[in-house]
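Re-run with default settings, no changes from the original entry. Doing this only to confirm the output is reproducible before filing.
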Amino acid sequence: MKIEKYNQRILAVLGTVGVIFIIVALIAFISITIMEHNRYNDDDIETGILSDEKIEELQKENKREQVISFRQPRLIDTLNSTYIIPVSHKTLDEQEDIMGLLNSYGAASKYEASDSRYSNEIYGTYNNVIIYNPKNEISKKLFNERVNFERIQSEYFSEDIYLLMNIAKDDTYKDGVINLKDYKSLYIYSLKTENLQNIGIEGMDVFDYKFLNETNDLIIRFGVDKNDDGTYNEYNEPTIIKKYNLETRILTDIVDESIRLELQKTLEGSQK
């Protein structure tokens, strides 16, 4: 009898501890969920830049809804002390009269680059890039047109450093903004030659890209907009794959057309 009562007490204690543990875990889970929700709220969603049509409407009233905002400079070339300053934008709560300039300040972040082959990426909501050299106090912008992009990739080679940006510049989706839903093309800037290359195919979207190992060749996947709605949907629309050489600037197929047709026929069941 005593052993039975003892066991009951032990079970009661263990049950109480278990309930307390579950309650604490539930509270912790709810707290983390709330924190994550606050961290990634609607204010952090990439809104894109306004379409040309919307800009024309605002200009008629001498108004603006978006203003430029500078991000922290990033050191990308230690040897030549070259920085990039990403240019972002903010959408105002209310339209304002176009007047004056904004004063924006940013502190440099320490980033060491080496001569070995590797990549570095920064993410945000950007509409331009400033190339800045503090030694000679020279700064220049890369784009003279209205563009939108979310990533700046620095690719380091022994002989050069390249900046890669997948950019939208037209409201192909016709939703009133230029953002990542629109067709994008790949821009590549050489710090050595100061040349800017643009790789794209009319009516297609640059979906992703990657350098082949130990080469200057890029593998690029283009999204095919099958339903012609101005945007590429990765879930039900296909991609094609091509190779681009930085030196020759030539875009070529990787998979032969005959192989592509054979694969399609096999998929359709028309080739036995």
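The longest strand covers residues 82-97. The chain has a mean pLDDT of 78.
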